[in-house]
Design goal:
The protein has 403 residues and is an alpha/beta fold. The protein has two domains: 2-243, Peroxisomal Thiolase, Chain A, domain 1 (3-Layer(aba) Sandwich); 255-401, 3-Layer(aba) Sandwich (Peroxisomal Thiolase, Chain A, domain 1). The protein is built from 14 helices and 16 strands. It has helices at residues 17-26, 53-57, 59-62, 67-82, 106-119, 128-132, 136-145, 160-174, 191-199, 238-243, 272-285, 303-316, 327-330, 337-351, and strands at 2-11, 14-15, 32-33, 44-45, 95-100, 151-154, 179-186, 229-237, 250-259, 294-296, 322-324, 353-354, 370-371, 377-378, 383-390, 394-401. Strands 1, 2, 5, 6, 7, 8, 9, 10, 11, 13, 15 and 16 form a twelve-stranded mixed beta sheet that branches. It has a two-stranded antiparallel sheet with strand order 3-4. The protein has a two-stranded antiparallel sheet with strand order 12-14. It is globular and about 60 Å long. The termini are close together. 59% of the residues are buried. Pathway: Lipid metabolism; fatty acid biosynthesis. Keywords: Acyltransferase, Fatty acid biosynthesis, Fatty acid metabolism, Lipid biosynthesis, Lipid metabolism, Transferase. It catalyses: (9Z)-hexadecenoyl-[ACP] + malonyl-[ACP] + H(+) = 3-oxo-(11Z)-octadecenoyl-[ACP] + holo-[ACP] + CO2; a fatty acyl-[ACP] + malonyl-[ACP] + H(+) = a 3-oxoacyl-[ACP] + holo-[ACP] + CO2. It is an enzyme of class 2 (transferase).
Length: 403
């Protein structure tokens, strides 16, 4: 198995893992009117509170990074500290980075496109591409940390963060690295993305009560709430972690991936792709559905998606597992969501706590699962599954086991 030795989180639930965990357990939603979305069809989102990139990185460096890269750097610094790693003393050639994103530096690209159309080509920043490309989180982390091992950027839409963790595990299993920093980052709470998702009718329209808008599995759900943030896990081979007596928070026991090959936005009506990814993750972990104590569901709060996922969880895992979705609190962080929620799943395994699903007032009558709501539930979690599904039919499923 692969050891998880460090976690780093920057999300609408707060900056830092302990702050995040407390907010997720509280079930207090983060959705509110969003800076920069005034005049858009949907003007609310879940944003990272109190994040100051210039304070974190210094003004000069911060101005050379898109917000999504700043999130990634902040989360990675915490994860490395949590793992008791010091980049000054490691063999950088044995350290890899795999970062997922669904959009990359969309804020930078939107701003620079306005410069082009409003003021002409000479006003486009020479840093537009070094800031905005989707590989730049991985690239900047390698530069900052001297990580000269495999360096990859993964894009599988809203499954990107989970896919990155799975790919990182494969790098460790192949022997290509001893340590891999893996996760996802996104900062797509922007006018273009708000308008595009609204035109698709994917977003909640609960304008009168944004805090109640993201309501996974609830009968009144009407779409997801956009979010931003980053989650990073430090993954190590068991041998490397043991050699340095590293603190092991959990183990990544299984990874499964598949494609629906059905539709660019709608889930497969029978959930076939999700089912195959879940079964592949279980097989990789050497477990059966009955062995899973907790499922961290993708649970975006969309009418179709939640119902389809619930039916597949029932078929593959059964009704015994305690199921919850973090998106009622933090919204949907798109390409970062899978990594953020993987970190929450590790914390559930570690602490024996299943967070509540916020805003679940009345369970959809078509869903026959044990959905945790109201308050966190204490229970032994020996194995937990984290689901991530993305536009285009991308599916990535992770299984974590107790250390």
């Amino acid at each position: 198995m692969t050891a998880v030795t460090g976690l780093g989180l920057v999300t609408p639930a707060g900056i830092g893992t302990s702050t995040n965990w407390a907010r997720i357990l509280s079930g207090k939603p983060a959705a509110a009117p969003a800076k920069g979305l005034a005049g858009m069809p949907v003007e609310f989102a879940c944003q990272v509170p109190g994040f100051d990139g210039e304070e974190l990185l210094g003004a000069r460096q911060a101005r050379r990074m898109d917000r999504y890269v700043q999130f990634a750097v902040a989360a990675t610094r915490e994860a490395i500290g949590d793992a008791n790693l010091d980049p000054r003393g490691w063999d950088g050639s044995r350290v890899g980075v795999v970062m997922g994103t669904g959009a990359g530096g969309t804020g930078t690209m939107e701003t620079q496109h306005h410069q082009l159309t409003d003021n002409g080509a000479r006003r486009v920043s020479p840093l537009a591409l070094p800031m905005g490309l989707p590989n730049m989180a991985a690239a900047q982390l390698a530069i900052e940390l001297g990580a000269t091992g495999p360096n990859l950027a993964v894009c599988t839409a809203c499954a990107s963060g989970a896919t990155a963790i799975g790919v990182a595990r494969d790098l460790l299993r192949s022997g290509a690295a001893d340590v891999v920093l893996a996760g996802g980052a996104e900062a797509a709470v922007t006018p273009f993305f708000a308008a595009a998702f609204a035109r698709m009718k994917a977003l909640s329209n609960r304008h009168d009560d944004p805090a109640a808008a993201s309501r996974p599995f609830d009968t009144g759900r009407d779409g997801f709430v956009m979010a931003e943030g980053a989650g990073v896990l430090v993954l190590e081979s068991e041998e490397h972690a043991r050699r340095r007596d590293a603190p092991i928070r959990a183990r990544l026991a299984g990874y499964g991936a598949s494609a629906d090959a059905f539709h660019v936005t709608a889930p497969h009506p029978d959930g076939e792709g999700a089912r195959r990814a879940m079964r592949a993750a279980l097989a990789d972990a050497g477990l059966g559905g009955a062995d899973i104590d907790h499922v961290n569901a993708h649970g975006t709060s969309t009418p179709q998606g939640d119902l389809a996922e619930a039916k597949i969880i029932e078929r593959v895992i059964g009704r015994r597992a305690a199921v919850s979705s973090a998106k009622g609190v933090i919204g949907h962080a798109l390409g970062a969501a899978g990594a953020i929620e993987a970190a929450y799943t590790v914390l559930s395994v570690e602490h024996g706590l299943v967070p509540p699903t916020a805003n679940l007032d009345r369970l959809d009558p078509g869903i026959d699962l044990d959905i945790v709501s109201g308050a966190p539930r204490r229970r032994r979690v020996d194995a937990a599954m984290s689901n991530s599904f993305g536009f285009g039919g991308h599916n990535a499923v992770l299984v974590f086991a107790a250390a």
